[in-house]
Amino acid sequence: MANDQLSILKSYFSELTDKQKEQFDALYPLYADWNTKINVISRKDIDNLYLHHVLHSLGIVKMLKFKDDTTVMDIGTGGGFPGIPLAVYFPDVQFHLVDSIGKKIKVARAVAEAIGLTNVTFRHARVEEEKQTFDFVVSRAVMPLVDLTKIVAKNITKKQKNALPNGLICLKGGELQHEIQPFRNKAFFIELNAYFKEDYFKTKKAVYIPL
Question: CB-based contacts of 115: which residues, under 8 Å, 6+ apart?
């Protein structure tokens, strides 16, 4: 199952280098092993790692291709999503992964070290405690967008270098029109099923909010 999903991932991102392919190849055995010790991914879902977690994380690539030297904070990263797949895809972008649960950060750090990522840092903290600034904040968001933007607005730097103004990019599901209404015409989302044909992506979206 995992190998089939890995093939799907590679078919969507044919531009991957051999090194990136090796790093993605290594994720399943690493997460499967860690998951027996620390439950970072639902036990029922570990076999869907590439589809539900890695490919979903890479949906952010369809919203914006970060320029080299961009800085990105991943909040509520859990075991490293979307941060670790994005760090593999963007080796010249700096990622900072934050989570309030220490054992999840432990897993994310161990996985990143095992696959040789050098563009990732980690912090066990609540995002409210993080004072550094970044070009973008990313998240697989469960919190309402209005609440999320209030928390991370302090972490967005003013200096621009990407095709979209600095801000927040979230992966969310379901109906989003009412959630983005408070942001007037500045926020927008893309439907991930326009890029990934698997049923899992039918209701999945990437949302952008400038901050």
Answer: 22, 23, 26, 27, 30, 88
Domain of 9, in residue numbers: 2-210
Digit-coded pLDDT (tens) for 40-62: 998 889 999 999 999 999 999 99
Q: What is the pLDDT of residue 1?
A: 64
How many independent structural domains does the chain possess? Answer: 1
The mean per-residue pLDDT over the stretch 177-205 comes to 94
The whole-number pLDDT of residue 185 equals 83
Give the 3-state secondary structure percentages of the chain, helix then strand then coil, rounded to 5: 45, 20, 35
Tokens representing 205? 């979206």
The CATH number for 68's domain is: 3.40.50.150
